[in-house]
Every structure is written in structure tokens, then in C-alpha cells.
Amino acid sequence: MTPGQILSIEPAVLTQQQREAYFENGYILLEKILDEDWLVRLQKVTTKMIEESRSVTQSDDKWDLEPGHSAETPRLRRLSCPNDHHPAYWEFASQSIVPDIVSDLVGPNVKFHHSKLNFKWSKGGEEVKWHQDIGFWPHTNYSPLTVGTYLYDCGIEQGPVGMIPKSHEGPLYNQYNDNDEWIGCLRPEDEATIDTASADYLEGPAGSLTIHNCRMIHGSKPNLSDMGRPLLLNAYASADALPYTHNPAQSKYMETIVRGVPARWAHHDPRPCLMPPDWSGGYSSIFALQQEETIKGEKTG
Question: Model pTM?
Fold first, then answer.
């Protein structure tokens, strides 16, 4: 569906002004929109998952560990596919207010794509360099979006996600280097052309949602504070957006229709899209990619 078609449908949650702001700028911040019950439940489950990570000694398909992680002092970068590891995460992704909000932005027929829980650990949680999501998992159109949930208050010192306003209407950038290796971020020469000074860093209290379109240039600074910044991320798309490539975040729930019905026709956007490496051989994480932790030639991205 086109933005005009979507805006002509009565919204379930958002105001028309909020929807228009999303389409104009490529993102919105919804402060404290979650009810307290959901927030407390997600906090408790996440604490339980962190305790589980104490027994993990190296990164795997589930956990992406920061250097220095130990049983005594866990340091986590990511829990991959949290929806597969605790039912509360999937219930939140599929049955909470979140997919209703998504339907206001992509149309009434919504499918789930993937989830991750980025921790941005205290006192050194790594930066995420400027990048565009859709290059990792291209679709037939650009409806895919990602909803981030702040589990705790997030101020500027915790390294909140930053958006380059209106960049979703600009070009898609090459996220390979000169050696044709996937780096998962903009090249230095392209970043130099971006007005990074205009970045809008989305601070928010616990229970706030960040929502950004798949074409948005975004990133975040390191967390040098004494507090962590867990951000639960769920990606969705309109049902008529079909993936071109292997999903790097394989989940038993991927492609599940969470609102409306499956599409009978695919919607094809005429704008071209960068193709990623073949993820079917495995995938590490955007953190490992951008920190150059992958082995040369390994099919992990």
C-alpha cells in the first residue's frame, strides 16, 4: 500500500498527525505508550535471560557477547530472536498494542519479520555505526519498519538510537567496502556526505517506543554511563512485502501474520535495493560486523 492509501484508513492507535510525521520524517517516538504491566513483565523476563547468560562463555546463535563477558560480570551485546527463547517476548510482539500501532503505518495486514534484544551494556556498550536496515534483508517494497522498546529510561548518556531525519527518502548506500566485503554500515566517503549533525537522538522514559522505516540512516553512540540500555527490537512489514533473500535472523515466527490476512498480491517498489551476502551459511551480528570481528571469507556477514 502507498502512504496515501494507508493514511485514508481509520487508525487503530496513532493520531493522523503522528502517522503523517512518520511518513514525512521516517520515524517517530512514542513516549511511555506501554502500560505498566507489560513493562514490568518484560523487565522481569529480561533479567532472567541475563542470569542465564552467565553460563555462556562464547557468542553463538543465541547470544552475542561483548569482550570481557564473564559469569561474574555479564556483558551482552545482543540476545538474538528473543521471541524464540521466552513466550512473553512473542506475546508482546504479536498480541500487545505494538502490532496495532504498526498497522497504522504499514496497512491493516501486518506480518512479523524478526526480533532482537540489544543491550548496549554500561561503561562501554559499543556504538552502532550509521547504516540502513533494508540492505540486510531486502523486500519487494519499503514498508518494513522496526519498533524499539525502551525497557528502562534512556537518556543521551546511554547512547539512544539516532535518526537522520528524512533520510528514508534519500538514496540507499553501498554497505560493502572496496574489497567487496560486507561491512554493515555506510562507507566513510558516503558518511561524509550525510548531515550527521542533524541526527535526532531518541531519548525516552521506560515504556517508550521508537519506530523507524527500513530505509532510515540510523545508529547510536557508545554507552559510557553506569546504566545499561536494553532495547527490544521487533521488525514488521506489510503483508504484501515479500523477502528477496534468506532472513539472517531465522525464527519460528518469521512471516507470521500478526494483524489482518496474508497478501494475495505482492507490492513491488520500483526503486532498486542493495543485495546482501548469502546469509544462509550463517550470520553473526551488526556489532561483530562493524567491529570487524568476523573471519575473512567466513559467510557470517
Answer: 0.92
